[in-house]
Amino acid sequence: MTRNMAWSWVHLDNKTPALPFMIDTGSGSFAVLESKARELALQKYGKSSVQAAVGRVAINWYGASVTLGGAVRETWLPVAGLSYLPQPMQGLIPLARFRVMGMDFDAGQVLIATRMPKDMSGYEALSLDAGRGVDGSLDRMGAYTNDDNNKLIKDHRPVIDAEFNGERVKLMVDTGSDGGLFLFPDYVKRKGLWDSFKLHHQGSIRTVAQSADVRVVRAERLKFGKLVFANPIVTLGNPADSDRDGSRTEAGLIGMEFLRRLNFISDPQRRKLWIRPNKAIADGYRYDRAGAEVGFVDGFARVVDLSSGSPADRAGLKLGDKVTGWRGKDGLPGLSWALKGAPGSTVEIQVERDGRPAMIAVTLEENI
Asked: What domains can you pick out in the chain, each with its CATH number?
């Protein structure tokens, strides 16, 4: 577990080195960066297009043997080639491929099993809306592949019933999203939410298909099971993109900003998601309080998004600045996490201008 990300080491075709793959409940298949698939000379066998949160994307399909965490192995699986994944991840591990899978953030562990643990004390069971036939059939790991009881189940990605601002909604549990609650553009359009929040933070998100404009707001309430989150941070998809978010029964995604506050176990065969609050349940919400985003462009870390008048803008950061370091640890992922920290905290970023280093101090502010 690393901040808002759960991941494991993966070998493809038994080649070295092992690659960091994100564990993604919102993905229906294994995936790897397209550039890495070519570097490893994986066997390409087809093409298709897949629906992302915003937009569809054409992908290549590769066949590869997969070894997960040095323990779970499969001789051949279809692997999608993607052009973008959040740094430093090189691929995706779909929770849908396993009979039982869980995350224990208190222990920093991921559980992969063929049956539920005996001791479920303190957990609450939520019903999963699974088997909907979305995005094709399910390919399973190991002995699960030959389980006749599950061959007709088409989609094990977990979808739960929730309540958002007093309305019942279906939300996909998505560990591949590092944000809180993301509402799809079509739902935002139908409910007229885009202009209903006077205070909002204008921003953008990057999906595997494309970048998209969003608004970040503070809503009234989010409830699922017995858990109630007051004034949660919510990202609104732009209603102008409503024709690009696909045909969905879900209103949106619950991301890791909420999920990291829970220990949970998914049992798709019985259509149950078991949740229990962990020690992070009372943590403050994290979101971009700097008004800037840093990402890799042509092999260099650069400022790829900057809001006019934001703390980062006023501090002197400029769009396209080459970021050479910061006063913290864990490189770009650590910096991205720090820029979503508590209001009043200061993040010192080193950039290179005209061949000379400059240190810029950004003081974070609450803006919604």
From this structure: 7-104 (2.40.70.10), 117-277 (2.40.70.10), 292-363 (2.30.42.10)
